[in-house]
Amino acid sequence: MVLILNYIFFRPDQANDVGKRFIEWTKDNPPDKTLSKNLCICVKSTEGGDIVAIGIEEVMKGKVEEVLKLTTTQDLFLASKIEGLKYKTEICLNFLEAYKIIGMTAPQL
């Protein structure tokens, strides 16, 4: 299984604007469960004092390209109205898939 981790970095004084823009995005772009499943959205501070919102999505088989396009479009939507907002997207394999690549079975945790 492929996971997409999406990071949104912004200043604390922009939190309300980011929240409003995200609500606006989701109204026009409701989650499509045929593409991905939201596993978690969490928020934390950075060492520099900014805020980072982290979204973790489980991507459905064969849908990586579509999810990446949608995630990038969402990031650009947020960044277009919020000065200095930065974003970063990462693609990861889950624990079980990573073990398969090295020819092993993952231990039971």
Q: Helix and strand layout, with pairings?
A:
Elements lengths: L1 E9 L4 H14 L7 E10 L5 E9 L4 H16 L6 E8 L1 H7 L8
Antiparallel strand pairs: 1-3, 1-4, 2-3
Q: Can you tag this structure with a few keywords?
A:
single chain; 109 residues; alpha+beta; Alpha-Beta Plaits; four-stranded antiparallel sheet; 3 helices; globular
Question: Would you write up a description of this structure?
Answer:
The chain is of the alpha+beta class. It has a 4-stranded antiparallel beta sheet. Helix content is 34%, strand content 33%. The chain has one domain (2-101): Alpha-Beta Plaits.
- Please bin the fraction of helical residues: 25-40%
- CATH class term: Alpha Beta
Main sheet attributes: strand count, strand direction, barrel closure? 4 strands, antiparallel
Cα Rg: 16 Å
Mean pLDDT, to the nearest integer, reads: 95
Order of helices and strands: EHEEHEH
Summarize the structure.
The chain is of the alpha+beta class and 109 residues long. It has helices at 15-28, 64-79, 95-101, and strands spanning 2-10, 36-45, 51-59, 86-93.
